[in-house]
């Protein structure tokens, strides 16, 4: 009588272990567009959503409580529920993404989507977007100490023959603007400073 070798069984077991470890993509949130200005819309797009989710719950910030609860979407009933942090400008979609319309300074920051899986298992992921333009000003200083506050985000500023050139990064393309300040002498040796205040 011949005994079966343990070697083929060990190879099969190791092969099963090797093939039994699938990699799952991590859920992420992408803000589209990534940089926005006041009054524009932002879509918080959820990537790598798990299969067969039961519901999605969106929160402002990273604290998952009723005070930060914006909205929820139940997949099987397609029902949308609004929370205490709902402003009327948010819209949740069936793919778990959240649209925030006409954003303002209070909207900037982080958002968390909690994904409720079948069987009451939950998974939370936090996304972040930055709002530009609201409350961001640049202060222009002259040599004699005068200052003007300009409601733009400045990348560069310098006097050129009596003109101030503002290069404004609008995140939709650069724009070059000229502002004429009448009491400056047309002297290219003038210096200037830039500053940002929020």
From TrEMBL:
SUPFAM superfamilies membership: Immunoglobulin (SSF48726)
Origin: domain of life: Eukaryota
Keyword Signal annotated: yes
Key word Signal present: yes
Keywords linked to the UniProt accession: Glycoprotein, Immunoglobulin domain, Signal
Residues of the Immunoglobulin V-set domain: 31-129
InterPro entries registered for this protein in UniProt: CEA_cell_adhesion, Ig-like_dom_sf, Ig-like_fold, Ig_V-set
Protein family (similarity comment): Belongs to the immunoglobulin superfamily. CEA family.
Annotated protein name in UniProt: Immunoglobulin V-set domain-containing protein
């Amino acid at each position: 009588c011949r005994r079966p070798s343990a070697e083929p069984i060990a190879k099969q077991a190791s092969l099963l272990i090797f093939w039994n470890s699938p990699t799952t993509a991590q859920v992420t949130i992408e803000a589209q567009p990534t940089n926005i200005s006041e009054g524009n819309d932002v879509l918080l797009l959820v990537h790598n959503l798990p299969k067969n989710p039961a519901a999605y719950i969106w929160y402002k910030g990273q604290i998952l409580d009723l005070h930060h609860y914006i909205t929820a979407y139940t997949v099987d009933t397609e029902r949308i529920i609004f929370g205490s942090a709902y402003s009327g400008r948010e819209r949740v979609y069936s793919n778990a993404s959240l649209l925030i319309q006409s954003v303002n300074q209070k909207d900037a920051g982080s958002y968390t989507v909690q994904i409720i899986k079948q069987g009451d298992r939950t998974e939370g992921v936090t996304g972040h977007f930055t709002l530009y333009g609201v409350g961001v000003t640049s202060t222009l200083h002259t040599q004699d100490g005068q200052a003007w506050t300009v409601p733009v985000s400045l990348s560069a500023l310098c006097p050129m023959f009596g003109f101030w050139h503002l290069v404004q990064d609008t995140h939709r393309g650069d724009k070059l603007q000229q502002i004429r300040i009448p009491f400056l002498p047309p002297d290219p040796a003038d210096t200037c400073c830039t500053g940002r205040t929020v």
